[in-house]
């Protein structure tokens, strides 16, 4: 059984998609061992507690230095026996010590088709504002492994979503969440939990059912 930690800063809609997928059997071989937020008021923590999941706040604000926070977060993850870290709207930079300790065991969901509209400064509505400003006809979401860069790790899964002529950043964000993010993240966790992911020469692949509708 894969022990998953979901790290989230806000409402936790992607967390809810993971919870629902585990409860419905669309994710097998994995359990949420901890939901961790840097924000004590994050609704994601409430979502977790409603499903009797361990929910904790580990915030940089509670430590004198960022190094102390990094060490505390790493210590919690190790002591909880975490096998996979899932970043689901987590707005804190993951420190090098955690990336090294959990090499190829951290995934992130980004609301665009990487390498478009990603990297430093591209988060939340900013991604969709940039996509609409550029006039793209297709956007989507990407699940990728996390390395020391920003959105630069190996791409695991992607799903395209049509951009409509009358879209606003808010409507595009919602459609990408519903049609891509809430589909991709559970599928990626299930693939990892069931040993269907390969990683070679910085290229990730999903075998036996890697296509996501």
Characterise the protein shown here.
The protein is of the alpha/beta class. The chain is 35% helix and 23% strand. It has helices spanning 13-24, 43-50, 66-79, 96-101, 125-134, 169-193; strands at 2-7, 30-37, 55-57, 84-87, 106-110, 138-145, 155-162, 197-200, 203-206. Strands 3-2-1-4-5-6-7 form a 7-stranded mixed beta sheet, covered by helices on one side. A two-stranded antiparallel sheet has the order 8-9. A hairpin with a 2-residue loop joins strand 8 (197-200) and strand 9. Helix 1 (13-24) crosses helix 6 and helix 5 (125-134) packs across helix 6 (169-193). The protein is globular and about 50 Å long. The model has no long low-confidence stretch (mean pLDDT 95).
State the total count of DSSP E strands. Answer: 9
Taking strands numbered 1, 2, ... along the chain, how are they ordered across the largest sheet? 3-2-1-4-5-6-7
Helix content bin = 25-40%
Q: Give the count of helical stretches.
A: 6
Q: Quaternary state, please?
A: single chain
Poorly predicted regions are none
- The string of secondary-structure elements, in order, is EHEHEHEHEHEEHEE
In whole angstroms, the N-to-C terminal distance is 26 Å
Shape: globular
Major sheet details? 7 strands, mixed
How large is the share of residues in beta strands?
Answer: 15-25%
Over the alpha carbons, how many angstroms does the gyration radius reach? 16 Å
The helix/strand class is alpha/beta
List the helices and strands and how they pair.
Blueprint: E1 2-7, H1 13-24, E2 30-37, H2 43-50, E3 55-57, H3 66-79, E4 84-87, H4 96-101, E5 106-110, H5 125-134, E6 138-145, E7 155-162, H6 169-193, E8 197-200, E9 203-206
Parallel strand pairs: 1-2, 1-4, 2-3, 4-5
Antiparallel strand pairs: 5-6, 6-7, 8-9
Helix pairs in contact: 1-6, 5-6
């Amino acid at each position: 059984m894969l022990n998953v930690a979901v790290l989230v800063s806000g409402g936790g809609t992607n967390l809810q998609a993971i919870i629902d997928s585990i409860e419905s059997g669309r994710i097998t071989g994995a359990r949420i061992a901890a939901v961790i937020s840097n924000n004590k008021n994050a609704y994601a923590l409430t979502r977790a507690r409603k499903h009797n999941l361990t929910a904790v706040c580990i915030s940089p604000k509670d430590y004198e230095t960022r190094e102390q926070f990094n060490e505390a977060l790493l210590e919690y993850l190790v002591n909880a026996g975490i096998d996979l870290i899932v970043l689901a709207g987590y707005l804190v930079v993951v420190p090098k010590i955690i990336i090294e300790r959990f090499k190829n065991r951290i995934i992130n969901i980004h609301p665009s088709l990487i390498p478009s509209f990603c990297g430093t400064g591209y988060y939340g509505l900013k991604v969709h504002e940039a996509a609409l400003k550029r006039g793209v006809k297709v956007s989507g979401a990407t699940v990728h492994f996390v390395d020391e860069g920003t959105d630069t790790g190996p791409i695991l899964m992607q799903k395209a979503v049509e951009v409509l002529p009358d879209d606003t950043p808010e409507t595009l964000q919602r459609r990408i969440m519903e049609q891509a993010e809430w589909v991709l993240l559970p599928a990626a966790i299930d693939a990892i939990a069931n040993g269907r992911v390969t990683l070679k020469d910085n290229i990730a692949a999903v075998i036996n059912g890697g296509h996501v509708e």
